[in-house]
């Protein structure tokens, strides 16, 4: 039976954190004392996923049985070794260099993720600090209206339609004022039937309280869950709204191709991780995953030789 000492419990807790498809090394579990981690796992109970722990070179200490379990979970391998570049689950949470929790701000987030990871630190040193984008001049509701209008349209055409829609509302653009505009006028402005239905659904759900446009007390996932009930608003649109209009700092848009590509560029992961693999890789950067996502986009721009555009 494993003793109740703090170091043993800490090691076991770190093992239980490892999600399927990922691994940690003995040194990750017990920095400076990897053999202690090995001794703990040798005596561990069945509820601990011992097979997700490997040596520092990616080899497996427990032989064919461990290899079978890792392959069953689709852990990236190179022969009989785990590909640590893709499979290693990052330990720890983001903190400032002196260990104090960081105050939630963009500046603090940049400092925190740079202190937490040398690859990000190098990228940040190259491209410089990112900044918040300007909020929509028509407020939160206007930002969602614009997102719906712009879906699946080229920039010039979308801008023209959006201007015509906006011109139909005198004064502030809100759910009530948009609801008052007749369908025929919105269709004449260039809206498709589907987008008109989306704007009507958005307006109705804002008015009845289904959709909450902002407020620090509404958690990110609840906000997203409410937004995706609107016709024409998917998770990606909701995540972009949270990141750029509400300036939420802990959004992790794993379905975004640019984020996936940027992650692969920053950490030399080829091919880039699929969404299911990328999701747990962001955990160590809480509460600043939005910052990391934006630097993933910066990495793509840098690789293409373009000036960083997502500032």
Helix/strand layout:
Blueprint: H1 6-16, E1 24-25, H2 26-29, H3 34-42, E2 53-54, H4 64-72, E3 77-78, E4 81-82, H5 84-87, H6 106-116, H7 118-127, H8 139-150, H9 155-167, H10 175-179, H11 183-188, H12 193-207, H13 220-227, H14 235-245, H15 257-267, H16 275-281, H17 289-303
Helix pairs in contact: 6-7, 7-17, 8-12, 13-14, 15-17
Quote the beta fraction. under 5%
* Main sheet overview: 2 strands, parallel
Q: What is the distance, rounded to the nearest whole angstrom, between the alpha carbons of the first and last residues?
A: 54 Å
Q: What is the highest CATH level, the class of the largest domain?
A: Mainly Alpha
Strand order of the largest sheet: 1-2
Q: Count the helices. How many?
A: 17
Radius of gyration, Cα only, in angstroms? 24 Å
Find the CATH superfamily of the largest domain.
Winged helix-like DNA-binding domain superfamily/Winged helix DNA-binding domain
How does this structure look, described?
With 311 residues, the chain is mainly alpha-helical. The chain has three domains: 6-87, Winged helix-like DNA-binding domain superfamily/Winged helix DNA-binding domain (Arc Repressor Mutant, subunit A, Orthogonal Bundle), CATH 1.10.10.10; 106-132 and 251-303, Endonuclease Iii, domain 2 (Orthogonal Bundle), CATH 1.10.1670; 139-206 and 221-232, Hypothetical protein, domain 2 (Endonuclease III, domain 1). Helices cover 52% and strands 3% of the residues. It has 17 helices and four strands. The strands form two sheets. It has a two-stranded parallel sheet. A two-stranded antiparallel sheet has the order 3-4. A hairpin with a 2-residue loop joins strand 3 (77-78) and strand 4. Helix 15 packs across helix 17 (289-303). The longest helix is centred in the middle third of the chain and has 15 residues, at 193-207. The chain starts with 5 loop residues before the first helix and ends in an 8-residue tail after the last helix.
């Amino acid at each position: 039976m494993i003793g109740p000492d703090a170091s043993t419990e800490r090691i076991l807790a770190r093992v239980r954190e490892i999600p399927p498809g990922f691994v940690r090394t003995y040194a990750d579990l017990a920095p400076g004392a990897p053999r202690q981690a090995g001794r703990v796992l040798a005596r561990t109970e069945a509820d601990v996923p011992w097979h997700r722990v490997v040596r520092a070179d990616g080899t497996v200490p427990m032989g064919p049985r461990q290899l079978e379990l890792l392959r069953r979970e689709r852990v990236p391998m190179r022969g009989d070794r785990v590909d640590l570049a893709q499979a290693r689950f990052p330990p720890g949470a983001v903190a400032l260099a002196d260990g104090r929790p960081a105050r939630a701000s963009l500046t603090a987030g940049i400092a925190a993720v740079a202190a937490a990871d040398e690859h990000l630190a190098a990228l940040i040193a190259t491209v410089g600090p990112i900044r918040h984008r300007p909020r929509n001049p028509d407020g939160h509701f206007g930002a969602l209206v614009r997102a719906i209008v712009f879906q699946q349209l080229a920039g010039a055409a979308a801008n023209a339609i959006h201007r015509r829609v906006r011109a139909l509302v005198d004064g502030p653009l809100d759910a009530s004022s948009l609801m008052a505009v007749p369908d025929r006028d919105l269709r004449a402005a260039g809206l498709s039937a589907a987008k008109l239905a989306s704007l009507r659904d958005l307006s109705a759900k804002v008015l009845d309280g289904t959709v909450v446009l902002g407020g620090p007390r509404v958690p990110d996932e609840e906000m997203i869950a409410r937004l995706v009930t609107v016709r024409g608003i998917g998770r990606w649109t909701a995540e972009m709204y949270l990141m750029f209009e509400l300036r939420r700092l802990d959004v992790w848009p794993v379905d975004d191709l640019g984020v996936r590509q940027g992650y692969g560029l920053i950490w030399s992961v080829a091919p880039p991780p699929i969404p299911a693999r990328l999701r747990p890789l962001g955990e160590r950067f809480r509460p600043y995953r939005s910052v990391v996502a934006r630097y993933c986009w910066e990495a793509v721009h840098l690789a293409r030789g373009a000036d960083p555009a997502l500032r």
